[in-house]
Amino acid sequence: MLEDRISYFKALLHEHTELRAQVNTKRRVTLLNGNLVNNMRSNESGVSARVYKGGVYGFASSAEYTDEKIKAVLAAAEENAKFMDSRVKKNKPMFPTVGTGKKELLHTVRDVEQKVFIDFAKDLDEYITKKYPNLASRTVTVYTDSMEKLLVVSDGFDSHSLMPRSYIYLFLTANTNDGSTVELFKPIGGFGYFDENFSNPDALYEDIDQLYSDLMKKAEGVYCDAGYKDVVMHPNLAGILAHEAVGHTVEADLVLGGSVAAHNLGKQVASELVTMVDFAHTALGETAPLPVYVDDEGTPAEDAVLIKDGILTGYMNNRETAQHFGMKPQGNARAYLFSDEPLIRMRNTAILPGKDKLEDMIAAIDDGYYLTDTNNGQADTTGEFMFGVCMGYEIKNGKLGRAIRDTTISGVAFEMLKTVDMLSDDMVWLSSGFCGKKQPMPVGMGGPAVKCKVNIGGR
Amino acid sequence: MITNKEIAAYTLDALKKAGADHAQCIVSTDKVDEFNVDGGEFSLLRTLFNSSIVMKALKDGKKGVISANKLDKESIDKAVQECIAAAESSVSDEAESIAPKIKNGDFVSGVMTPDKEKLFDRLQEYLADLKTDYPKIILEQLISKYIHSECVFMNTNGVEYTYTYGNYDISTMFSAHEGEKSSSFNGYYAKFDSLDKKLMDIGMQRTLYAESEKQIDTRPINGKFVGKVIITPACLAEILAIAFGNFISDPTIIDGTSPWKSMLGKQVASDKLSIYTKPLDERVVCGERFTGEGFMSENMEIIKDGVLKNFILSNYGSRKTGFPRALNLSQNLFVDPGDISLNDMIKNVERGIILNRFSGGQPGTNGDFSGVAKNSFLIENGEITNALSETMISGNLASMLKNIIGISSETVCDGLTVLPYILFDGITISGK
After folding, report:
1. Which of A340, B195, B295, B361 lies deepest, with the highest CB count within 10 Å?
2. Final residue in a domain of this structure, among B213, B236, B265
3. 3-state SS class at A318
4. Is A452 left (phi over 0), alpha (psi -120 to 50) or beta?
5. Are residues B136 and B282 in the same domain?
6. B198, B233: one domain
């Protein structure tokens, strides 16, 4: 656990200053066809300070975490803020208060030995090899990371936080009859240390069997017919829809950078069925996948309602953009490493469930697709988004047909969301990836099955 | 321990004493001064004092790797114990090794004395130029920094390299706006080692800004057709990186799923295409001098006149498969220019598009791809007619490389790569 060397300096902080000590850990084990191609442990830690002066920031960081270095980074951040203020002269006022207090650590900091990961991966690999010897390739990866932060601020909430995550990634490749290959990938896991999420490899055999079964269907799959189509997105895709298609466009720094949301606040941007929230730490009565209680500017985290009944109601802010837009900061400013400054980031972004049943949604389509898994996504300032679809099925006359090969779907968020006419009454949360901005960041995303219209790539 | 060399030597000694048969270590320290612009205005100056150590131990053919950023004795001693424990838990693999000693070297490159004030002045000038020359552009973000780095590689075979370098870089994200209409965002990255010229004149930034201003009014393509696509230098690097990742890198050559696994020495692309990786080319700013596995970097042919000359395997991948290793880290792509100007290339396209950015799903190992054509233009009867929205392209990367109609005589250098425009045929282009 991080030693608290920074609280001592709180009395010295003035204007708006953040002082943060942080440790990031990563552990990765990868077995590629039984070869241990990755066996890595990484620890990255240090201290940083950020000072706000007249509308600009100065920041400094050091890997060394000593009283002397804490003083040095505070002085360097102050000097950088002064340099920028003297050259840029924005003369902006200080931020309004967000209250004061302290949030204590909620989870115990610890570590897991590399041997545990390797033995677990070997067991899964052996299961795959024995049961499915005809695969063209198999990869089993164990990945865990954690972020422990100690934060003191001049004007806001101090906090001690921890975000451990652990996942197993299964990646299978099969040969197809046409001499080509198809792949399928499945992440399993979530918040918590490895041994909190995974006790016995046997518990994952069913996931492997399902993945293999899907892969075999995909190997026989067809290319999509390119064009504008009716689709049902499985809940696995709703989260990335919330995150990519809408979430990024309503990050206030991107709004200032020219995103389409700048002109749509208070307007109808989606079907009345759609409500979308960036949850802070508790969602629908349960702890959110990756809870955030205080952000890295010392703002206590609360939910940001982005779309309410189809109307765009808000942005996600840091303290500076909240002041600019006259909004309340809700705890979205987060930094990845000790040496990173806080940026506006999503936390647990979700489309809320509706009232429909998945089977009724599929039955409502004559000619379209049921899309069940995604492997990446990207948004645009215009609201045009895309994500890769790595598993799905044709829908013909209300019934599921042949599996499909890899494809990509796209649309313009605020047009596409108006085509949403059914939402399932269940939802799925995912948290295994990183959101990419200037820095990476773990984020949670979720939602129900969505029936809508999108562009689909194909032949 | 004061110097990186002393730290590396101590670490290797400690790994040996803890039971490693072989070991290697990379120690680096760097200082970064970074200016940030957000929403067109200066927002932040960052100063980072970074350090890192990556150690690898082999014990009984088993590998452990530790990466950390603390260089004090106590932290290194702890990391050494973790590294040995990770190796002892590992799986024995005869392909694991460390580099043999061939020739050691000390390298220096780039700018050693940065000028923070001048960099700020150049950036202020850049913002002014942008406002004057491209008034419709909103700069979502600009990040420009100077980095000074000192790096040491050592292993227990006696390999020893040092590399000290300093360079500037610039990274931008931007879009063009008029009223409530806007273009898609685009971005650019370039490295440079001199503040003597305007930052706006580096690479193809002016082209991209001018094009973005023309991408405010867009139209989707109606229907679907198979046509020609001109891929710009900014987009080509990404497309080639995806193709090489799928076809000639460690994972798919080791597991045998690459469609090019048996194509070494054979025709895999149009005979117009020659591709190299050249970290030592004088146009590359502070290119790497040695690989993370401890081999001195050399320039290398990948495809010559359409024939696949080399995979880009690590030394591990090489020992695992029996094919030669890559001679560098494959970061600096060069494509030989062709004999047709970009303008003539456009004139030869009956119906197709110019692709400036590809936003797509991760292509499968077989090379099938599909995605959105971003910041792109429609070409009809040899002329650029309009900017595109909601237009998707799909095809197969391996087939595409065989289907090259022309390569431009113009190339663009961004300090990392030197690439032309390439005209491909046979791509499915679809709209609403």
Report:
1. B361
2. B213
3. coil
4. beta
5. no
6. no
Chain-chain contact of A258 with B177 (C-beta, under 8 angstroms): yes
**A415 at the B interface (CB within 8 A)?**
no
Roughly what angle, to the nearest 10 degrees, separates helices B116-133 and B205-213? 30
Residues B21 and B153 in one domain: yes
B238 and B154 co-located in one domain = no
CATH number 3.50.50.60 given to A7-219:
no
B107 close to A (CB below 8 A)? no
Q: Is the dihedral of CA A334, A309, A429, A387 positive or negative?
A: negative
Assess contact for A51 and A72: CB atoms under 8 A: no
CB A188 within 8 A of CB A121: no
- Which of A 394-413 lie inside 8 A of B, CB atoms? 405-408, 410-412
Same domain, B192 and B242: no
d(CA B161, CA A228): 56
pLDDT tens across the length of chain B (432 residues) = 689 999 999 999 999 999 999 999 999 999 999 999 999 999 999 999 999 999 999 999 999 999 999 999 999 999 999 999 999 999 999 999 999 999 999 999 999 999 999 999 999 999 999 999 999 999 999 999 999 999 999 999 999 999 999 999 999 999 999 998 999 999 999 999 999 999 999 999 999 999 999 999 999 888 889 999 999 998 999 999 999 999 999 999 999 999 999 999 999 999 999 999 999 999 999 999 999 999 999 999 999 999 999 999 999 999 999 999 999 999 999 999 999 999 999 999 999 999 999 998 888 888 999 889 999 999 999 999 999 988 989 999 999 999 999 999 999 999 999 999 999 999 999 887
Please report where in the chains the tokens 């442990």 appear, as a residue: A41
Are B74 and B113 in the same domain?
yes
Of B180, B213, B246, the last residue of a domain is B213
pTM score of the predicted model: 0.94
Tokens read off for A298: 């010392």
Note down the domain range covering B66: 4-213
Which residue is associated with the tokens 């001195």? B296
Distance (Å, rounded) from C-alpha A339 to C-alpha A284? 34
For B:352-391, CB contacts with A below 8 A are 359-366, 368, 370-372, 374, 389-390
Which 3 state secondary structure label does DSSP give A280? coil
User: Taking a contact as any Cβ pair under 8 Å apart, which residues of chain B between 179 and 198 contact chain A?
Assistant: 180, 182-185
